[in-house]
Design a protein that fits this description.
Two copies of one chain form a homodimer. Chain A has about 200 residues and is mainly alpha-helical. Chain A folds into two domains: about 45 residues, Homeodomain-like (Arc Repressor Mutant, subunit A); about 130 residues, Tetracycline Repressor, domain 2. The first copy, chain A, is built from nine helices and no strands. In chain A, α1 crosses α2. Chain A is elongated, with a radius of gyration of 19 Å. The termini of chain A are far apart. At the A-B interface, α8 and α9 of A face α8 and α9 of B. Chain A binds a DNA duplex (30 and 30 nucleotides) through α3.
DNA sequence: CGCACTAGATCGAGCATTCAATCGAAATCT
DNA sequence: AGATTTCGATTGAATGCTCGATCTAGTGCG
């Protein structure tokens, strides 16, 4: 981080500030319970500035969605370089669990926010590239005999469903311990469900 | 169904009509995208009637929530009478899958609607009685040696997460076939994850 | 006649969005 | 260098509209 002036008067990028504030508010209170005024206040910019960078409120959510999907896509692409289904899937669980602890707001946005309600016709996150890749990993694993013969959709359902549910419970404060505490049990269960 | 008059002029119970319309609209378009005017129109009653039966919009959602939770609670209570974990869990999957096909709106309300956003402080559905019962079933099953030794929270996470994900995929139109087509694969995977 | 229910017009708060004015930093000129 | 122009960035009060909620005047049934 380069401090171009005194820390207290640090010059920030308004667009980023707006998106950061919006992510925080959307995930905490929901899209419809968040007003432009709320974002304005938390991002410490004026109403006009928001509309200078974004066409409207929806466009802020769209930008967040894009960002999150792309960063997920990158991570999953990296993981696909690993050379068997066991390692790949295990790496995804670890990535998601770690992300939940380090960037809970991003994870909340992925796992619990209902995008359909405000992002009109956009294809659901369930159909977005990262999740298509997940089903591909299953197909390849099954073909290679590393995974049990079963419908790949069911395989990815078991996998993502389980992971997402653990994350949701953590984000809702149901789990007292950090997610990595549950990693072994979770992974063992998933692997028993999927392995031949 | 008892027809008290000619079918075309059938006298309906307004409260039920309102709740039916609200359930349909809330699950289709979301709570905030549904106006009282929408409900008024679909239920074919006047604004006055809505406010006669419900304190406000939120109260309609609350009533729906109560109804759904109670009916779920009853079903799960019945299922707990079965005498081992295998049968109990299997019955729950079947119940949920069947409910998804027959009453998709109710299932959407349970699985995909984010109640927190409009039902202020109410404890999340994840913590409501039916889901506590699910964890109890896991605990009992583990104690009895019918399920593998593992954290009961993780067990219920695998179970509910998988089932909910399959339901979500079905409701979003990702699965071409009816859910019962996937039942065997889904159940096999779950049982491999949980059995000793 | 009385009472539970219905109708629909009306209110007003809250909200997203607009816009004319102003700033300020760099570019251009003298 | 200093003055002047330029133009995107920024401001925030004003606008207009949607929508939940209220109110008053019925209506019809027992």
């Amino acid at each position: 981080m380069v401090a171009t002036s005194l820390d207290t008067v640090e010059k920030k990028n308004p667009k980023e500030e707006i998106m950061k504030a919006a992510l925080r508010l959307f995930t905490e209170k929901g899209y419809f319970n968040t007003s432009i005024a709320d974002i304005r206040q938390l991002a410490d910019v004026s109403t006009g500035t928001i509309y200078h960078y974004f066409k409207n409120k929806e466009a802020i959510a769209e930008a967040l969605f894009e960002e999150v999907v792309h960063s997920l896509e990158d991570s999953i692409r990296e993981i696909r370089k690993l050379n068997n289904a066991f390692e790949r899937l295990r790496a995804i669980v670890e990535l998601f669990f770690e992300l939940t602890e380090n960037e809970p707001e991003i994870m909340r946005f992925i796992v619990v926010v209902r995008h359909q309600e405000f992002l009109g016709n956009r294809p659901s996150l369930s159909l977005s590239p990262p999740f298509q890749k997940l089903t591909q990993i299953m197909e390849e694993g099954i073909r290679a005999g590393e995974l049990r013969r079963m419908d790949p959709i069911v395989a990815s359902g078991v996998f993502y469903g389980t992971v997402a549910r653990m994350i949701q419970l953590r984000l809702e404060g149901v789990l007292e311990k950090r997610l990595d505490w549950y990693l072994l049990d979770t992974w063992t269960a998933i692997w028993r469900a999927l392995s031949p």
